[in-house]
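Exercise 4. Each item below gives a protein and its sequence. For each, produce the structure-token representation.

Item: 2'-5' RNA ligase family protein (Halolamina salina).
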Amino acid sequence: MNLRVPPAVERLADRLHPKLTPFEQVRERHTLVVKRIEADTWRAGRGGVRERLRRVLDETKPFPVRIDGIDYFADPPDGHGPVVYLAVESEGIRQLHRRLCREFPVVDELEGENYVPHITLARGGSVADAERVAETEIEPVEWTADRALTWDREHREAVDRFRLRG
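Answer:
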């Protein structure tokens, strides 16, 4: 389950692109993952998952989100590193993540107490390059999260869209 990111985040990522060229993979699409829902949960009942998500999201009020820096995971628990990302600050995201973790199984090492809200920019390469990018000053980007979506990793597209109503 992801939150929609505004065009200002895409513009920021575009401005940072020249600094990301040393990395093996540079993200072209940017998402803000709030909760991973594994494929076996979906296979067990897509309609039921959608309704469970809808219940949680219908009770969630729109909330503020802020990006105010760049950071990196030197040795991420999933995939190769380093992972360079936009650092996201939002108590609303953390609260929503906790609620979704009570509703759906937690992905070990990535969620629960280990969850770090972020928007991945690039991965693979050297920690020294990640450190250089992380030193970059950026203008903060702020928005109100009011829409969520489910993302199909296999087909690389949004599947379901939800409005936060609270």
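Check: The beta strands are 2-3, 25-26, 32-33, 63-73, 83-89, 118-123, 141-145, 147-152, 157-163.
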